[in-house]
Design goal:
Elements: H1 4-15, H2 21-28, H3 32-44, E1 49-54, E2 58-66, H4 71-79, E3 84-90, E4 96-102, E5 119-132, H5 144-150, H6 169-180, H7 186-193, H8 197-209, E6 213-218, E7 228-236, H9 241-249, E8 254-260, E9 266-272, H10 275-284, E10 291-305, E11 308-309
Antiparallel strand pairs: 1-6, 2-4, 2-5, 3-4, 3-10, 5-8, 7-9, 7-10, 8-9, 10-11
Length: about 325
């Protein structure tokens, strides 16, 4: 469990994943040496993981029902796909879920998940629009003034439904470097790409502006005292979709909100301290009255988040970090 200072550092990294320790220390009002020591330890122990995530093509959610005793097998197979961003083991009507990025010009609905080991049946839900991604989720421990001081540009931008693949060798080298170490210095990226530091700075800003890559600070919810994570699968009338999606995305507990095509129209990933808090969210929120039908899947374990493989009971140990 993260202590108070670690949570403050973690949220600073959520806001600006590449912020220097000096800048974070100045905003938080702490000594730079203390922030450097504690922040470096957080990254080394993977209490916080800063990851570069490549965006190209379209995205699809895959949720499936597994053969008896095969949930971990299916979750492992989905997590080890290089094009998967997250993979969760679930309770409820579905056993596993994953987000898959498809290459440009490869229709999202063409994904054949039925050959995934362990899956008995799978449903694909192409993502039509994001209203929240993990890039915009915050722990909520910093003051508004501290958050503003750390914010650079829009608080969150979303990948397009069809993002073009970068074709510049320099851009591809930058993205490869970020996927390996998203806090790598501009000088080191410049050496790897064979260009000047100013060129890397300019190209990185453009890649982020075009949403071809995003940089995220990943924090496990349980480390912040949020022990209940659930996926909400909502059926909503067409004329209410935008209204409900906007309202759900405004919830502090919402980590991920997307409009999808399929048997439901909206999916949200929410994290709260306990089941009682989840009950209050579902029964007292104003947007709940506009939801025609709701299915709740509890997240029993995360094998992959933000393209990064995580330890999970029963999962294969010592797997390399996967590219997303």
């Amino acid at each position: 469990m993260l202590d108070d200072l670690e949570r403050r550092i973690a949220e600073a990294l959520q806001i600006d994943p590449r912020a220097s320790w000096r800048r974070i220390a100045r905003v938080l009002g702490e000594h730079e040496r203390l922030i450097t020591r504690r922040g470096t330890a957080l990254l080394e122990t993977r209490g916080v993981v800063v990851a570069g995530v490549r965006h190209e093509g379209s995205s699809t959610l895959v949720r499936g029902i597994c053969h008896p005793g095969a949930r971990l097998t299916a979750a492992e197979a989905l997590a080890l796909r290089p094009d998967s961003t997250f993979t969760y083991v679930l309770s409820g009507a579905f056993d596993v879920v994953a987000e898959i990025h498809r290459r440009p010009r490869s229709p999202a609905y063409s994904l054949d998940a039925s050959i995934t080991p362990g899956l008995a049946r799978a449903e694909t839900l192409p993502i039509l629009r994001y209203f929240r991604t993990i890039r915009g989720w915050r722990l909520g421990v910093l003051t508004e003034a501290e958050s503003r001081a750390l914010t650079r540009g829009p608080s969150e931008t979303f990948p397009d439904s069809e993002t073009p693949e970068p074709d510049s060798p320099v851009d591809l080298a930058i993205i490869d470097a970020l996927e390996g170490d998203a806090r790598m210095s501009l000088d080191e990226m410049a050496r790897r790409a064979g260009v000047s530091e100013s060129t890397v700075r300019r190209r990185l800003d453009l890649l982020q502006e075009k949403n071809q890559v995003s940089i995220r600070a990943l924090v496990e919810p349980t480390e912040a005292g949020l022990h209940t994570e659930a996926l909400l699968w909502m059926r909503v009338a067409p004329h209410r979709i935008h209204q409900v999606a906007t309202a759900v995305a405004a919830e502090r507990s919402a980590r991920y909100v997307a409009v999808v095509a399929g048997s439901c129209q909206l999916m949200a990933d929410v994290t709260v301290p306990d089941p009682a808090a989840l009950y209050r969210l579902l029964t007292e929120s104003t947007w709940a009255s506009h939801v025609e039908a709701l299915d709740v899947s509890m997240v029993a374990g995360a094998r992959k988040r933000g393209g990064q493989l995580l330890s999970m009971p029963g999962a294969t140990e010592d797997q390399p970090v996967a590219r997303s």
